[in-house]
Amino acid sequence: METRPVVTCFLRSEGEVLLLRRSDAVGSYRGQWSGVAGHVADDAGRDRDPETAARAEVDEETGLADAVTLVRQGDSFQVADTDHGVRWQVHPFLFDCEARTAETNEESTETAWVHPPEILTRETVPRLWTSWDRIRPRVAAVREDRTHGSAWLSLRALEVLRDEAALADAGRSDDLETAERDGDDWEALAALAAEIREARPSMVVIANRLDRAMAAVTDESPAAVERAATEALNHAVTADRVAAAVAAEHVGDRIATLSRSGTVRAVAAAAAPEAVLVAESRPGGEGVGVAETLAESTAVTLTTDAAFGHELDAWSTDTLVVGADRVLPDGCVVNKVGTRSAALSAAAADVDCYAVCATDKITPRAAWDREERDAQEVYAGAADIAVSNPTFDITPASAVTVVTERGVLETDEIGGIADAHRDRSEWTERR
């Protein structure tokens, strides 16, 4: 039996993936649902590496090649097709996609953005779930990721819970990450949710969003957990989007920012400022990448952290816009180190400072653990010198205005939301 290498690509947006229904123009699996798929060899029979083939198929079948970012390539696997006399060597890929309007070719009759568990119930090409299973988020990915922000990771955390619950409900124990856990399905899924909460204990938004899902479960069944996780994920996507849209209505034409925040990037996209000032954001230098991205659509000035406060004034800044790692119940904002000095400099220059985030970033409790980065980022010499290299700092509530999907929040409103988060966290006591 001949072996033919093929790619299966999932484009992910807002927690959903794009499926395409295969037309009569294709040679196999007509009328069945698939991801973006195609042969590794090109039309002339020339070999390509799988990633090159994957990107080419995304372009040909959806027109979204410029909107995708590779997340991961999964391990390949084989599917024997006796009807067609071929053994498919499937190479799975996952791409994040910034757009949702696909321009299909003759190989597809319709498209659908769906939560991946729908793969388990639709008529799909053989082993489409296996392709998703090879690249879907896992607890380890949430724990080990050092590239993305907490809001992005919170969506992945909910995806882990959603998919595991769907597998338990479908009786697919062989695929379960919870397979070796003791107890019934509810206990296994509750243990998984608790594990994800602890994977990144400093990221309060992950715990709050998992708590929102688990607190909504009443009948303690896998189906109920899947529904709650899906609803929490949809709520999170909407909250992040609306928070950015609300903030965009408040900012001016010349904005400044620091570090890396997907929400701030969304604010800039919605507000379309005439110019943006960006601090380089040492020691990680996240601001450099932000500046490069924003430069595709507006005039950008990149400056040093040391000069940022002065430039806020000299550059005629209208608004300082920052993200938030977390907002404390008293309205103080914990964010990338440098935020405090930038906010205080903005106040001195009579520049508005907005911290933009979803209300899920409000922490239920006032406690906050200081985090230190590697001391050698600051000093690697031999002298006996104490090094302080904090990851975050705290900006007083008096120096920053918190903007969320609910609008601009007063301090008492922030405290009330913190209380609601604390109440939802009590689901852990039911375990």
TrEMBL record:
Q: Which family does it belong to?
A: Belongs to the eIF-2B alpha/beta/delta subunits family.
Source organism superkingdom: Archaea
Q: SUPFAM superfamilies of this UniProt entry?
A: NagB/RpiA/CoA transferase-like (SSF100950), Nudix (SSF55811)
This chain's protein is named Translation initiation factor 2B subunit (eIF-2B alpha/beta/delta family)
Q: Which Gene Ontology terms describe the biological processes this protein takes part in?
A: L-methionine salvage from methylthioadenosine
Residues of the Nudix hydrolase domain: 2-141
Question: Which keywords are on file for this protein?
Answer: Initiation factor, Protein biosynthesis
